[in-house]
Amino acid sequence: MIGLYLPGTSLVHRTPTLLKLALLAVGMALLAAVQGAVSLGVAIAVLAVLYALARVPVRVAWRQVGPVLWLLVIAVPVQALFAGWPAAGLMAGRLIIAVALAALFTLTTTVTSVLSACETALRPFRRWVDPERIGLLIALMIRCVPLVTDIVREVAEARRARGQERSLVALAVPVVVRSLYAADAIGEALTARGFDD
Amino acid sequence: MSVIEFAQVSHRFGEREVLRDVTLRLTENRIGIVGANGSGKSTLVRMINGLVTPDTGRVTVDGLDVARRGRDVRRRVAFVFTNPDNQIVMPTVREDVAFTLRGRRLSPAEVATRTDAALERFGLAGHAEHPSHRLSGGQKQLLALAAVLVAEPAVVVADEPTTLLDARNARRIAALLAGLPQQVIVVTHQLDLLADFDRVIVIDEGRVAADAAPGVALAAYDALLA
After folding, report:
1. Which of B47, B99, B101, B134 to substitute to test the interface with A, most A CBs within 10 Å?
2. Which residue, A120, B13, B51, B152, is most buried by CB atoms nearer than 10 A?
């Protein structure tokens, strides 16, 4: 979800978030039942239609699954060694489709609508759980990924500048300390914006 | 204008006394707060919207005690931090501005209208769907301003809002703050920004060292630094 949303007005964009989440869950479950090249081919065709409906450019679609291919370079031969190439191919196909389906969800759904959907889904459990607080937790979790990534990058640069590239302590300790300070500061900012307690 | 009062306020962080017996009545439109690092000025302004509550004494905003009515105070007093990264919560610019209006019982249409107006006002309309963490430093501070001002507070407190910015963005933020209809209280090290302010307060070692018009107060600050 981090910076992945692709603004649009397609049918996929306009589908209510809770329905999208439910369909995503069903899709993942059906994917587990895919056996053989034919059903895998059907699943890929459905995926392609969904991406076309959402008007996702090919290069953007490729960027979603590209990183997974590196993982498969290692996983597929290992799987083939133990279970044979057909099983390895099936595993690779399922993984790529699963990642692409999840990516399609994040490409076509804003974080705000995910939060609203979570709040709606949790509303029947209001007595035990605060839906708004859960929604805020999810938003902060997403927000903190690029924040911590920046902290790690800055600390790594500082470590390199001081000739300590090999020191794990010189990376880990400052990252943890700065992350905790950042968490404190974000908490203060949330209080200032009216989201206290 | 809101009336902000400090009545014999003192505060400690651990062993260190950061504010000592401060009594102030802030009613002016534009107030600057200056002082050396560690002088207590950030603690002072954080008390205005209840982020810090005093150990002794009382701080009120329009009669509301910040220690007891913090939530009500924070609806009137917006706070802008030095580092906008700590203030940005949501992944996109539009979502972050709209986030402030959650829980205020506004219709989705009203939220959208006010969000769009805030984005337009701060020149962020073209970045509305962009990831907030990929904005430049100046744009992030504009986003931080838009995100607090969309709630239409009565007072804006800014704690060194230009420290992390280049000269051009610093001037831009300073000009925006100067043009706000709200009462504005700014902590800053950029003394030239305070020339047109109504009042400047110098904080030194937790006490009010000077409290006057900019010319007089800054001369006193200069003498302290000598």
Report:
1. B99
2. B51
**From the CB of residue A180, how many other CB atoms can be counted at a distance below 10 Å?**
10
| Residue of B70, B137, B133 lying closest to B96 (CA atoms) | B133
Cα nearest neighbour of B92 on chain A: A3
Dihedral of CA A5/A6/A9/A11: which sign?
Answer: negative
CA distance B133 to B146: 15
pTM greater than 0.80 (yes/no)? no
Quick: pLDDT tens for B45-95: 999 989 999 999 999 999 999 999 998 999 899 999 998 888 888 888 998
Q: From CA A122, how far away is CA A130, in angstroms rounded? A: 8
Burial class (CB in 10 A: 0-12, 13-18, 19+), B45: buried
CA A91 to chain centre: 20
Q: Which of B124, B111, B219 lies closest to B176 in space, CA to CA? A: B124
CB B149 within 8 Å of CB B78: yes
Nearest to A139 among B49, B90, B134 (CB): B90
Question: Which residue is closest to A193 within chain B, CA to CA?
Answer: B100
CB B19 within 8 A of CB B45: no
Q: How far apart are CA B165 and CA B139, in angstroms?
A: 10
Interchain contact, B81 vs A139, CB within 8 Å: no
ipTM of the complex: 0.79
Q: Which residues pair with B79 in a beta bridge?
A: B157
Q: Which residue has the tokens 């709209």?
A: B98
Q: Between the CA of residue A149 and those of A124, A155, A162, B7, B171, what are the distances in Å?
A: 36, 10, 20, 44, 30
pLDDT digits (tens, 9 = 90+) for A26-70: 999 998 888 888 888 999 999 999 999 999 998 888 888 887 888
Q: How far is B27 from chain A (nearest CA, A)?
A: 21
Q: Which of B52, B93, B102, B155 to mutate to test the interface with A (most CBs of A within 10 A)?
A: B102
Q: DSSP per residue over A135-191, as a string?
A: HHHHHHHHHHHHHHHHHHHHHHHHHHHTT-TT-SHHHHHHHHHHHHHHHHHHHHHHH
